[in-house]
Each structure stands twice: as C-alpha cells, then as structure tokens.
C-alpha cells in the first residue's frame, strides 16, 4: 500500500479517536451519584439502586472529585478480613459520602438519615455485642476490630461525610494506630454532618477522632460512650507546635455546631482534648456525663489551646480536677452565653480549674456555678437563685425550664452569623421579634402570664411569669384585711379554694382578680371609741364602695327625740346579687343600753319620702345585727339592682336609760337659768 494511503488512514484514525475522547470529556467531568446498598442484587456497578455496589470500598475506589456516594441503610465494614485491621474507609478530596437512604430515593433531600441507620463499623469479625450493629459501650467490643473505621489525609472542606453512625473502632496499637478509632485525620479539614460516633476505643489519642493539625467542621454530630485510655475520650485535636512560635501564634480552629458529647471517658479530657494551639469554636454544644479519671471531665486544654464556647452547656461531667474545664500552659478559653453547672471534681475545680497563672477563662453573659467570673453580664453563680433549672439534669435533659434565670439572659450579638436554630432545631431566639437569646445550648419557648390584682388584694406571684407552652401556673389569692375575692379569670384557669391555676397556655395572657371590701372600721364620730362592721351575704361581688361613720346632726331629727350615742353608719354596697339579702354586724365600743333600736333614714315602700324608721335588729351586748334585702326595707333606692344604700345607727329615746348628766352639764344649765332670770329682772 502506498505510503500516502497509510498516512491518510492513520490521520483519519487519530481524528476519530480524538473526536471520541472530546465527546467523552463532558461525561468524564460530570459529577456522578454512586449507589451502595449491601442488599442489592443487580449489576453491582453503582449506577442505580438496583445495580448498586454492595461494598462501600468499591465505590470509594472509583469516586472522583465532585462525585457523591449514596449509601443505603445497613452495616458496612472496611474489610471482612480480621488480619487487615489497618484497612479503613479512606475519605477522598471532593467526594461526598451520604448515608441514610432507604434505597429508592432519586434526590438526596428525600433521605431520612435518622430512620435509615447507616453504620460504618469496625466489627470486622462480626462478633461484637452490639445493638443493631451499633456498639454502645466499648466493653462490648470482642476480638479483632479495625484500628480506624475511617481515615483522611490532606482532605479539605469539599470532603463530606454525612448521615452515618461510626462505631466499634478499636485503636489499641502504638502512635497513630493507637489513636482515632472512629476517624483519624492528618492535615484533614473535612465537613462532617449528621453523624454519631458510638463505642469507639483508642489507647492514646481520641477514642472516636484523632485530628492532627486540621480544622474539621462538625454539624449535628453526637459523640456517645467513646473512650481513650489517655487523652480525649471522644476527640483529641493536636496542633503543629511549630505554628506557636509565630508572632502572634497561629491557632487552628475546628468548628463544632450542634454537637453533643455524652458518656465519653479518658484519663485527661473526658470528652475533648486540645493541645498546641487547637482552639475550636463550639456553638450550641452540650457536654454531659463525660468522665476524666484525672483532669478535665469535659474538656482539657493545653499549650495555648483556647476554645470559644458559645451557647454551650456543661453539666454532669466529672474528674479528679476540673470537672468541667481544665486549662494549663497559657490556655484561656472563652465562655459566651454558656452554662457550667452541676459538674463535679473529687479534688478541686468542680466547674473550672486553671492549673497555672497563665491560664484562665474569659466569660461574658454566662453562668458558672460557685463563681462570679469577671466580665459583662455574667450571672452570679454563688447565688443559689441562679440555679439554671434544667428540665431534668439527672437524665441529661439540659433544656431550661421556663422560669430559669438563664432564659433571656444572653447576648444576641454573640451568636455567630448564620446560626438561627438551637441544638434541638428550634429557633435560636424566642420570641422571634425583640427576643433575647437564652444561655446554654437550648432555647426555651414560653408564654407570659401577667397577674393583675385590683385594689384590696394580691396575686402570688405578683410579677409576670414565664410558663412553658401548654404548661400551668398556680397563683395564690390573697385578699387584704377586710376584703374578699370578687372575681378571678383569664389564662384558662380554675379556682380551687384560694389558688387559681392556669392550664394549657397557648399565648401570652393575663390573670385578673378583683376584690371587694366586706368590713369597715373607724372611730365613732361622737368620740365613744372604735366601731367595726362586718358584711355577710349578697354574693361574692357584694362589698362596700362607701363606708362613713357620721354624726346624726347631718340628718333631720327624728319625730321623737332620739339620741344616737355612737353616731350613724352611712354606707353603700355594690355588686351584690340582685334581690339578695345581706347581714351587717356592727360592734360598738361599749354594750348598747337596754331599749336601743336600730334606726334607718330613707324611704320605705309605704312612704317614698326619706324619713326615720326602725329596722328589725338583734342586739347582743356591744353587737347589733340586721338584714337588708336588695330593693326591700332598708335599701335606700327601693330597687333590686345589686346596690344597697342607707344610713342608720342604734338610737335611744331621749328619756330612756339616759345616763345622769355630769356636774359640768348641770352647772351649765343652772348658769343659763340664772343669766335668764337676771336678764328679766333688768328689763323689769
């Protein structure tokens, strides 16, 4: 064949090959969704759920930057060979691993990672005493387990691990093989979302995670019952010492948002160990029930490691020294909007211990039990009234009760940008308009109950109270002396005896109470002494709106000469049940003389003009009682309208049982007669 022909054929072949490759480039560069389902029975190529890989390692080996690996519920181990303990799932730059699929979803948003538990386990012999594939305590680990379940070196934030439970790692070797049983990171800063690390063990650093000189970002992660024999029961973060020689030192800042550390244990740093400038930022984070056999029940900070704790709650952690925080070698953590309460230490520093003069804590808008840290707006932890009132601290429910002093006690300005929810997923600030953030990881919803007591009594408590939605508040009813309760209502409440209890609150509301005066007391206008009046009957709203003790001289004289030794009682009752009968009992300073009658001034049914008449009354020593029916005799308006008005008082005929006039009275009378006689004589 001529050379020209061969060259032409070759060129055409090259062109065709080049064109083919060019056509394939968009396909090669297009991000793929690689499916993994251990129960799949199809082509095992990862292209669909039906043809999903059954081994996660196959998907990882083929994934390219931009790819997402979707993993269905199940238990996945790095290997099934007990001799290959060093084998781990390797995180890859730019690759996202997502668990929590049921195996039917077409969109990542459709998965439910909390229901479809996807487990990455180090139980390569499949013999651990787990619960549904999850080791809940490191004592359940049996036989040979993976040294690390996951590993990542030089990975950045484009590397995503999301929606998995990582369990049963057992790093019992030396150096790195004794660290980070769940995940070991070297120069790694991946994005870690929606994860649980449970029942992982390391002999040196970080029962669940060991991170060297990296800044991973944690969102919605739980560390449960992990353990290290030495440092960091859940996580140990170690920085590069060389960076601390810079001026200023270069600090590395891992981020923890919405993270729970519970039940982890180590010799130092029951939950977290930070060293050589590792200064994580923690927001909406809880440390509960973590134990350090030596120092730092929750967190141990060493060598210029100064984390920032924002809206973080530390409670129920314990250590020999520093039940909450232990700080040494120029480590100065910052607490903002945070609570350290209910931690314990067998030696010293139940909440916080600073091991040298160069270490300490900077606190603002925070509450530390037993301390009143210097700084803006900290609550006084030495005051028992500052108890944060957790819902149930003993069981780890560290939400605040509605009446906690830590509610609305924080600084909104301290909340990091983009943080809009609390650890439970509810709004970070309540109420949303003009609200103030609470201290700690949880925001407490509440309604305001405002007591409003009218004159004549009190509601106890008297100030506005915060009450949880659907909750109740008991208010004591306390009438003043001479008063009784008229009405109380509001906030869907019920009155039993002297207590009004609200129920089922669904909005801000007001409890309103009114009181009526049912007794009167004052000095007699004649100077005879004090007079007391007691009202009975007429209904709960019946009471005095006017009660005056007046001289009889303010009224026309009686038709027969009558003396009123104690004056008259001029009163008005209002709010009585229509047509009801009231009884007034009056106690005078001295027993009433025999023959006394109770006189009233006003109209009667047979004489509409005001006049004096005698009311039926009962006399007993210094007491006199009589009854008036609304609209009947004794009621000045003669109308059954709930109002009773009339003056009256006990009177005596001028000549009956009158005391003998004093010498002074006779002297005055005699002098008048003499002057009259002398006047007559002069005219004569």
UniProtKB/TrEMBL annotation:
Signal peptide positions on this chain: 1-31
| Gene3D superfamilies for the chain | Single-stranded right-handed beta-helix, Pectin lyase-like
Q: Which residues cross the membrane?
A: 663-680
Cellular compartments annotated = Cell envelope; Cell outer membrane; Secreted
Q: What is the name attached to this protein's record?
A: IPTL-CTERM protein sorting domain-containing protein
Q: Report keywords, A-Z.
A: Cell outer membrane, Membrane, Secreted, Signal, Transmembrane, Transmembrane helix
Q: Where is the IPTL-CTERM protein sorting domain?
A: 658-683
Any Gene Ontology CC annotation? cell outer membrane
Location, primary (coarse class): other
